[in-house]
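Notes from the 1:1 (GR / supervisor)

We went over the backlog. Supervisor wanted to see one worked example end to end before approving the batch request, so GR pasted a single chain during the call. The sequence is below; no edits were made to it. Supervisor asked that the structure be written out right there so they could see what the output format looks like.
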Amino acid sequence: MAKHWSQVQESGALIGIRIMFFTYRWIGRWAFTLLLYPVISYFYLTKKTARQASEDYLTRVRQQGALPVTESIQRQSFRHFLQFGRGLLDKLAAWTGAFQYKDVGFHNRDDFLNMVKQGSGALAIVSHLGNIEVCRSLAEQSQHVKLNILVHTKHAENFNRMMNKLDADNHLNLIQVTDLSPATAIILQEKLNAGEVVVIAGDRTPVTGGRQTTANFLGAPAWFPQGPYILASVLRCPVYLMFCNRTEKGYEVFFEAFAERIRLSRKQREEDLRYWVQRYADRLAHYTLQFPLQWNNFYPFWATADETVTHQE
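Structure output shown during the call:
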């Protein structure tokens, strides 16, 4: 299997992010933009695995007709890296309150907020497409919403700590987990009972590997974690999909009702999981083709020929 995404090192990125963030905060976005090009150029030229993964992904997107074939794949890959850099700025800006509620568009927001206000809580499956941190503005708008984001990364502890410091009002809560254990499930159930929202990524496998299933994604089998759907079946709560992407009008948050409940039968557990994983992969593909340069995956994502069966550890 391809090298696990969590093995990618920070490579001094935290220092660079701090410099770029304070450049933006104290000098302005124009200075940040000037600094962005040499920093991204350095990572683009020195990170071969990330560059190759980007080109592989963009090639698949081009085959789906979402990017022009008249532009070289290398140029599109560099723009992919640049978009990632701009997204990091927006991520940090969101945590410092730079994005106001009025600046963010929401789709199907009322249905989601009405459910949360009833105090039942929910599980939201997100992705690394776009910038989910902008949802901070949603949390600030309503005292009824608190987001608990599960993060798997061990190597991003310093980055997560810095973001927690920036979130002075504590609208978002990062919960670092290396595995979805029974103890973790109990903590999350308490969050749901308090009417809060648990957020988990559907396109990242845990650091320990965990249970994975292949689904067709952009025309080929790719690995997706089973964790979100197993967790949903344990928590017995409504499940939503949530995407946040930059459009010409600014950031827009897309909510989708995914399931009132997810039930996994004992006899057909793997078949049920494949169904839910594929449904998620289909919706991720739908938004990815709309915003191809905003998918922040820079590691080998697709399964090789001998890895196209359900993998369990």
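Supervisor's comment: The CA atoms of residues 119 and 195 lie 4 Å apart.
Batch request approved.
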